[in-house]
Amino acid sequence: MQEKCEHYQAHVKRRVKDVISPIVFEAAYSLGDHVIGREEKELPPLRPILRWKKGHKIAQKNQTVFERNCHSEDCAADLRLQGRLLLSGVDADMPYLALGAVKNLSLNISISNLGDDAYDTNVSFNVSRELFFINMWQKEEMGISCELLESDFLKCSVGFPFMRSKTKYEFSVIFDTSHLSGEEETLSFLVTAQSGNIERSDSLHDNSLVLTVPLVHEVDTSITSSFVHLEDWECQYQPLNVTLQVYNTGPSTLPGSSVNFWIPDRLSAGDVEMFLIQEVMVGQERGNCSFQKNPTPCIIPQEQENIFHTIFAFFTKSGRKVLDCNRAGTPCLSIQCNLSALAKEESRNIDLYMLLNTEILKKDSSSVIQFVTRAKVKVDAALRVVEVANGNPEETMVVFEALHNLEPRGYVVGWIIAISLLVGILIFLLLAVLLWKMGFFRRRYKEIIEAEKSRKENEDSWDWVQKSQ
To answer: Which stretches are transmembrane (predicted)?
Structure first.
């Protein structure tokens, strides 16, 4: 029996991740194909076999391990993880993520190893399925690579094949946030660091961290209005139409809002209501409104007054009365509308149809009555909605005036003419009496005639003057 030895060289594949487990190799021997020169047809050819004896092995296994630089008996690593969440394009101190305004965000990760060399070190990220992984960024090449294993799971290999003791790695992973729906109140990231080494239980507390940011709908709402004066109606009513427009500049979708509209409804506390709300309509029927209807819309205040009081009130109408719901004590009619979601750069109209009882205005002593109506759009903080700072105003006002046309009733006109004639005659008689008292009608006409004759004689006489030589 002859013994023969052969030396073979084996190469480890690149990017081997498991450097903790030993490399197992096995050697076995067997007979090769036996070649027979001539084949017998009657009987099959005989083939040689190996003679196996007890205690002998046909195969032999052995193993080797990767060389590791371990200072402890258990070769324990001590990973420490730190991180920070940054939003692109906004202030670093922004306490929330505005849906639609922030296009992407980055997680700045710092991982350090204070123990023995850490083999097969990985940092994994559990993220929302609504996020899209864009890229991994490192300031300089440090042997970090990332792979998206699932839509919500990202795994990054750090310092392959091992992360040396007392080293620190920093990198950032960037995600696209443009597809966030906002259904969740908070966007959360679970970041975990682990290696193939064992790690003592008292040092595992800093191997994971949770980074969160609140999700809010950041909007810039505004409200505008217009006023339409329609044709006169029956029952001494003046039809009016007010249109409010709510607009969302964005950048986020406004999930819901409410609009309050206040109209001065009485000349003073205790007076009769002036307005009758006919209908309030929200554009595209994407909202609903509520208001209190006037139970007695056609009531006209009846006052006991004589003709002289009526004439006096007609001539003494002056000044301006301002009815403003912002002033304390002004009775106002309130209308509230709840609107559904309003997308970025979308508007919604609210049409208000109402009637004004003009007979009530005629009873007031002012020549001009100014109505200051106000509207305000509100967002619900419970829906995680915030207004853009220094954005468009959320309030507007509509100002319209009722002018007294100075047209008295027919019977008042007759009385005015009669009283004017009577006053004119009385003034004429008074002047005549005053002139008579002053002697205008008792002058001496004889003295006047003689004085006039004497004046003419004096004009016909000559004056002689001596001329010196």
So the answer is: 412-436
121 CB neighbour count, 10 Å cutoff? 25
Whether the Cβ atoms of residue 85 and residue 105 lie closer than 8 Å to each other? yes
Residues 6+ apart with CB under 8 A from 448: none
> How many other C-beta atoms can be found within 10 angstroms of the C-beta atom of residue 140?
5
Residues near 60 by Cβ (< 8 Å), separated by ≥ 6?
26, 27, 28
Q: Contact at 8 Å (CB) between 191 and 107? A: yes
Q: Which two tokens stand for residue 351?
A: 């049409």
Residue 157's alpha-carbon distances to 106, 145, 147, 447, in angstroms, are 18, 5, 9, 140
The DSSP code sequence of 222-248 is: EEEEEEEE----STTEEEEEEEEEEEE
- Listed in sequence order, the residues at least 6 apart from 359 whose beta carbon sits closer than 8 Å to its beta carbon are 236, 300, 301
pLDDT above 80 (res 189): yes
pLDDT per position as a tens digit, 17-62: 677 778 888 888 777 666 666 655 566 666 777 666 666 677 888 8
* Residue 292's pLDDT band (cuts 50, 70, 90): confident
Q: What is the DSSP letter of 33?
A: P
Domains, the chain, in order of start with CATH, read 79-218 (2.60.40.1510), 221-296+315-403 (2.60.40.1530)
Query: CA-CA distances (angstroms) from residue 377 to 287, 388, 394?
Result: 13, 14, 6
Q: Percent of the chain at pLDDT above 90?
A: 31
One-letter amino acid identity for 261? Answer: F
Q: Following DSSP, what letter does each residue of 179-228 receive, concatenated?
A: T----SSEEEEEEEEE-SS---GGG-TTSEEEEEEEEEEEE-EEEEEEEE
- DSSP assignments along 21-32, one per residue: SPEEEEEE----
- pTM for this structure? 0.64
Q: How confident is the model at residue 72 (pLDDT cuts 50, 70, 90)?
A: confident
Closest CA to 259 of 277, 246, 241, 278: 246
d(CA 416, CA 308): 10
How distant, in Å, are the alpha carbons of 143, 324, 441 from that of 124? 16, 62, 124
**Percent of residues in the chain assigned helix, strand, coil, to nearest 5:** 15, 40, 45
Query: What percentage of residues in the chain have a pLDDT greater than 70?
Result: 76
CB 211 within 8 A of CB 85: yes
Distances, alpha carbon 278 to alpha carbons 290, 292, 388, 395, in Å: 12, 11, 35, 24
Q: Can you name the residues that pair with 254 across neighbouring β-strands?
A: 342
